[in-house]
Every structure is written in C-alpha cells, then in structure tokens.
Amino acid sequence: MKLFADLIRDLDSTNKTTSKVAALVEYFIAAPDKDKVWAIAILSHRRPPRPVNTTLIRSWAAELAAIPLWLFEESYHIVGDLAETIALVIPSSQNKSDNSLFQFVEEIILLKSWPDKEKKEYLIENWTNLSYYERFVFTKLITGSFRIGISQKLMTRALSKATGIEEDLLAYRLMGNWDPSTTSFHNLIIKQRESDFISKPYPFYLAYPLEGEVEDLGSVSDWFVEHKWDGIRAQIIVRDQEVFVWSRGEELVTDKYPEFHSLPGIVPDGTVMDGEILAFSNGAIGSFNDLQTRIGRKTISTNLLKKTPVVLKVYDLLEWKGEDIRKLPLMDRRQLLERLLTLERMNELPIHLSETSQLCNWEEVAAERSKAREYRSEGLMIKNKNSPYRVGRKKGDWWKWKVDPLSIDAVLTYAMRGHGRRTNLFTDYTFALWDKDAEELVTFAKAYSGLTDAEFRKVDAWIKRNTLERFGPVRSVTPQLVFEIAFEGVALSKRHKSGVATRFPRIVRWRQDKKVDEANSLEDLKMMISIPQSQHE
Amino acid sequence: METPLLIFNENGIYCQEADVYLDPWHPVDRAIITHGHADHSRYGNKEYITHKNNVPIIKHRLGDILVHGKEYNEKFVVNNVTFSLHPAGHIIGSSQVRVEHKGEVWVFSGDYKLEDDGISTPFEPVKCHTFITECTFGIPPFKWMPQGEVFKDINQWWANNREEGKTSVLFGYSLGKAQRLLKYLDTSIGEIYTHGAIENMTEVLRNQAQFPPTTLITRDTKKKDLLGNIVLAPPSAHGSTWIRKMVPFVTASASGWMAFRGARRRRAIDKGFVLSDHCDWEELLTAIKSTGAEKIIATHGYTEIFSRYLRAQGYDARTEETQFEGEVDEVHIEKKEKEEL
C-alpha cells in the first residue's frame, strides 16, 4: 500500500502533466505485478464493488474521531470528498502498513460478505493504523471512484513509457471487461494475443469541434456531411454468433439493449459497427430525455421496451468479415457498411443508416445545420472521405459542427459547495425562471460550469453574504443574480417540477446588467421546444 | 437590561463604557489593535493603541499615525475600564485584549494560535467570563502537524527541486507567514530571494527577531541566479508576469487551507504545506477551555458550526457578524495581500 499511497501523494504534489507521468512511470517500474493490475484498474475507474454502505462508514468514522455525526457531515460538505474527510478527522498514525495494494483490494472484496460488526472492526483497525495518505487511499477504495486528475490517456502514456509497448495497443488491451482479480499483468499488458477476447471493442475515434470557418475545409466534395445524433455513442460487435454492445465510456451495455440481441445470425460474424443509440418510436427519433429512461436501468421491463424502443444509427464499419478495416478510407468503409445493410433480413433489425447529405457547397451545409433541431440532431458531423478510423480525439479528419446552443436568462436560487478543486467554494448552482401566472420562480436547471475562477469567487462571496436558509450543504439565496444559461436542447418532462428538461445546461455569463425581474419566464423556455419532423427510414 | 461590556456595532467591537473600539472596521476616535493584518488594523482612526512590537508594523502599513505601544500584561485605564494586552502567538506583536469593568472580564482573542512559532511571543490563556474567539479553522478536519515536521518537508522539497535544477517558489502571506517560513529555511541548501512586499515587511521586523539574509528580486535579477534557490512571494504573485520569468519553477503554498486537496488544485499550486498562524480545531477547544469562560462569541470562520458544537458541550456560545466574518478562505487572504502590496 505504501508504494501506491506514495504514488497518489506524488501525483498530488504536482500540477504538471510531465511530473505526473514521471511519477506513474516510476510506479509502474517499481510496483509488483499484482499491484500494477489493480493500480491500472483503479485509475481507469474499475474499483471493487462497494463493500459497506456509506451511511455506516460515516457513522463509524465519526465515532472513531469522537465527534457527533452532524459535525462529521458538516465537515464532509466543506471538504467535499468523503475519503478525504475521513482521512483528515481520524487521528494520524505514524505506522505504515506492509500489506500491498492488491492484498488490501482482495480483503475489501471479501469484506462485502462480512457481518457489519466485523466490517466495522476491519475499517477501524485500518483507519487507526494507516498513515494519512494510506488512509485516504484505503478509504477511497471503499467509498468511491478515484478522481485524482489522471485520465486514462495519461495512465496509458505512462504505462507505455514503462513497458515500451505502443500507446494505441495498450489502449486497446485496456478496453472492455477485464477483471483485475483474475487478470495478470502479463496477460493484460504484456502478452501478445492472436484473437484477444471476442468482446473487445476498438477505441472510439472522437471528433474535434470545428475550428475557424467551415469553408476553410476546402472542397465540399472531399467530405461526408451527416447529422450529429444525440444519443449514446456505441460500438456493436458480432463475433462467434454473439453480440456485444459497448458505450463510449468503455462500458459493456449489451444487457440494457435487448433490441440488438437478434443480430447474430443476420449480421455476419466478424462485424463491428460504430454509431449512436437513439430512442425511436412511431417512425421518429425521440429526445435524449426519452433515451434517458433507458440509461441507468439494469433490468428493462417489457413495458419500457415497448414504450421507448431504441435503434442504432450506424455510420461506420470498423471490422468486416473478421478483418480490422479501420485503415481503409472512410468512403470504402461506408460502401461496405451500405452493402451490409442490404444483406438478407437486415431490414428486420433496429439498425438505420446515418445518411450523408448530398450537398454542393458550404452554404448548403450551413443551411442543413440550421435544420438540426428539427431532425433532433445536435448539428453536423463533417468527415473526410479519405479518413482512416483513428484512435481517440484527433484533429484534422472528423469535425463536429454543432448548432449554436439555446440560451435563456435565469435567476440563481440555490447554491451548493463544489467538489474536487472547487471544494469549499459555492460553485454548484440551481437556476429558476419566472412562472408568470403565479409570479414566482420555478427551478428549471442546475449548472456547474461556465464561470471563470475569479467569477466563481465573486459569486461565492456574494452567496455567503446573501444566504436565506441552509439545508445541509445547500443554501437558498436572495433571488437577485441573473445568469445566461445555455443548453443544447429542451424537451417536456414529467420528472421535472418545471415540466421541462434542458440538455447540458451551463452558465454562459453573469448578467450583471440585468435585474431579477428581467429574467426569462418558463413560457419563454417552452417556446423553444421544437417538434421534430417525423422521419421514415 | 444593562449594556454588555463589549457590543458589536456597525463600526466594530465597541466598549461603550470606555468609548474604545477593538479592531474597528470603520474609522473611530480610539482603537485598540490586536495585530498588523489589514482586516484588523485599518486606516483612519484618530488614535491607535497596540502592542509595542506591532507599532513598527502598523506604521509601515498605515504611515504616520498616532499610536501608543504597550507591553504585554501592562494595565491601562480608559474611563474606568481596565485594559491589558496579552500574547496571542499569531504573529509578531499580536495580542489578545483583556477588558475589565466592575469585576467582569472579557477577552477578545484577535487571531491566535497555540504552537510556539519561535518568533512571536507564545499564546497565554487569560481567565475571563466571556471569550471572543475566531474560528477560521473551526472544524475537525483541520489538524496541524508540529511546525518542525512541516519545515523538514519544506526544506526537503526545496532540496529536491534544486537537484532537478528548478527554482522553488513558496507562497506565504507577507506579514507573519513569510517571516515564519524564512526563519526556518535551511540556508545550507541555497539562497533565499524575496518579493518586494515580503522584503520590506521583513526589513521592518529584523530588529525584533533573527532572520537569515535575503535578496530582493529586482529587474536586474538573472534567471540563472534563481535556479536551485528559493523565492518567497505573497499568494497574489501566483500567476503573475513577475513569476513567469522564473521558469523552470515549482510552486508551493504554506497555509492552513492546504489541508484540503481541492484548495490546492483550485489554485493550481504544485505542492501544499499545511502551516497556519491560526488554531486548528483541537487548539481552539483547548484555548477556550483554558480561559475558563462560560460565554463564547465566535466571530470569523466556521462560526455557526463551531458555536453549535460549543453549545452541545455546555457553553453559552453564539456568533457575531464582524467584518473579519465570512468563511475566510485563501481568497480572503489574497484580498488582504492585495491591500498589503
């Protein structure tokens, strides 16, 4: 554990990427293989299942720190991270544990099945005997994900430096569903495989937002233009008569989408498609809000399946007849994709081609983009016809050209302290719009981003001076400050008090020029809801 | 009802019987000042009374003012009210103010800490009926290590940076923190350079305490002179053009707020050293207990949480709004710092 805790301490002691990578490289060289597998798993957010519920953890920590639970909770709201709070309030020890990271993780996995009394003993023993950073890491393993400013990309880069294996190859090997408790470092990282696992997806190729003017891309005939669908980016794999659905978060979500379970037998083995999962019923694409009812459900009821069916809007083919075709030019891949869709019985499947628009000049492209909301798309994708399918976010070949966001002026009504680097600052805000009939403010969105650090500090100071009431970590404030809130879309919603749900709300600017009664109304927002055209495929 | 000995009005903490203010935030005729930080000693008062060691500090900051210096424990009477100053251990010349009238004793702590920093006169508890306390770090996650350990870490960090051929830039508030850091930097590692605000303030304090030699950074200072050495700078210098000249450098901040990982990340500082001139949670509780006071008034910091805890412990505790109020953060310190510059 000491090695891993030291690594976290070192990563914590620098704000520079190069130093972080250097610390990781050093760790990957020095640590035992069994630890390394877990370190990789943890840094790529594959933590062991939570063995103890956090209510119990909090009460035990408060007890050990000899403070009342409410004081522990208040402290937690201020610190902003449970493991950090626990590491801070429990008296420090000079001891260091000799147990390695993997031994701790194995214990934590077993812990889940123990009775509460023994769980408590185990936690208290370790909290008491570990040093500050070890205690922090230990508690993190138990409570939550390791967000410490290390992206998977950064970790892969370090791993590449430590092992001499190419980054892209490592990214591929680290994808998917491997289990750190049964996978050895050698098998995961070092060993070359012929087939690897049949479920393995390819790393997604991600587009960059368009920079500069669209005309600068040159001749429009060099580019495919299609709509940018607003769903879940997914790769669907059919190999060995099995189907696997992967979301962009490298999450295997096959079980959540039974619609695709009928693919094997129709889609030939050795096929990998890239596209967007969308809600689709009565011949029209649903809103992201509709799709939301499918995300996060582990079991899908027949009712839900009937009410909100999904399709794959497919736009790329990465593997064909068992062969990795990512290096082929996009136009060739599309040709194969179109051929795939004409195969027998393919029309029975919920797979729709994402059509490319036939456009003669950039003016027509711009005009197509302005129709995005009618199509329920986020804008356009502009892809070079000769582009290979690359790994990760790369500039040059694929551009996204989103529609300008909608925006509205809203009133700040509630604030909560932030997390991570915004710990102890009020940076998480709730906004409201006027209900004209009732002459009251109705909450419609939360937003966390969009202001500069300096602006956040100003608003934070204002919030502290203008608090009306406190509810745990949340404060209501005098309705006075007006902010412009931008969002990608708006739809009717029964789950929201306001009756509408906005997509990706964020703060554009602080409207210091506007008084509270000049903020927009809920009616103004509802006017923005556009009814999509019905589309028949 | 009789007026309390000290009240909190729009100008500051006021003793009506004596017509004297303690650390007023608006100009008044007569002010007793606990210490030299900008939010406790402001411009415009007709007459200042403070500890003699604080006199050069506030004269440096406020210019030509009418100020009387007092010794610790020296009693002075204003309109039948007896006042005396007692060591607060916060920075050089910092005091608590004891106020006595007709057998009733109040103590206003100003800012204070219990650990002997080797520079300021260590905190002495003063028996009283009512204790007015700050609680900047008045929640349990704040727990300081002995300063010896912190300085060991700081010197180790400096030595490592030197080995890597980098300049160490250490941020600390120019009055108090900077001198405390300076005092314990290991000059066998390298030379100590300073930002103007720190150099000037240290100069004022050199005849009150021993500090290692420092070199002021000027236009003529060469980048290579700084390599491997350490630069002491006020927090407001972070991200300034002044500091960009020092590349390659590594930054660190020494503050109680560095106990939080998020506070450090938010400021984009490489390394945080947890070092404060305020009490941590346990020290606050110890200090309050040692005064024997039954009534506690919490002024700035996590006042509501802190006084709620004290009430549960059986104290008659409440909070009062002051202009040192607000959940004091490094933002606040930056503000102080800017006024200082």
TrEMBL record, chain A:
Output the Pfam families linked to this UniProt entry: DNA_ligase_A_C, DNA_ligase_A_M, DNA_ligase_A_N
Give every ATP-dependent DNA ligase family profile domain span.
Answer: 303-435
Protein name in the entry: DNA ligase (ATP)
- Give yes or no: UniProt keyword Iron: no
Instruction: List the InterPro entries hit by this protein, alphabetically.
Output: ATP-dep_DNA_ligase, ATP_dep_DNA_lig_pp_1105_fam, DNA_ligase_ATP-dep_C, DNA_ligase_ATP-dep_cent, DNA_ligase_ATP-dep_CS, DNA_ligase_ATP-dep_N, DNA_ligase_N_sf, NA-bd_OB-fold
Catalytic activity field: ATP + (deoxyribonucleotide)n-3'-hydroxyl + 5'-phospho-(deoxyribonucleotide)m = (deoxyribonucleotide)n+m + AMP + diphosphate
Family annotation (SUPFAM superfamilies): ATP-dependent DNA ligase DNA-binding domain, DNA ligase/mRNA capping enzyme, catalytic domain, Nucleic acid-binding proteins
Record keywords? ATP-binding, Cell cycle, Cell division, DNA damage, DNA recombination, DNA repair, DNA replication, Ligase, Magnesium, Metal-binding, Nucleotide-binding
Whether Protein biosynthesis counts among this entry's keywords is no
Which CDD domains does the UniProt record give? Answer: Adenylation_DNA_ligase_Bac1, OBF_DNA_ligase_Arch_LigB
Single GO MF descriptor: DNA binding
From TrEMBL, chain B:
Q: Extract the GO molecular function terms from the UniProt entry.
A: ligase activity; RNA endonuclease activity
In its keyword annotation, does this UniProt entry include Heme? no
Alphabetically sorted, this entry's keywords are: Ligase
Q: Does the keyword Oxidoreductase apply?
A: no
User: Taxonomically, which superkingdom?
Assistant: Bacteria
Q: Which SUPFAM superfamilies match?
A: Metallo-hydrolase/oxidoreductase (SSF56281)
Name the InterPro entries on file: MBL, RibonucZ/Hydroxyglut_hydro, Xnuc_lig_assoc
Q: Which residues form the signal peptide?
A: none
Q: What is this protein called?
A: DNA ligase-associated DEXH box helicase
**In which organism is this protein found?**
Arenibacter certesii
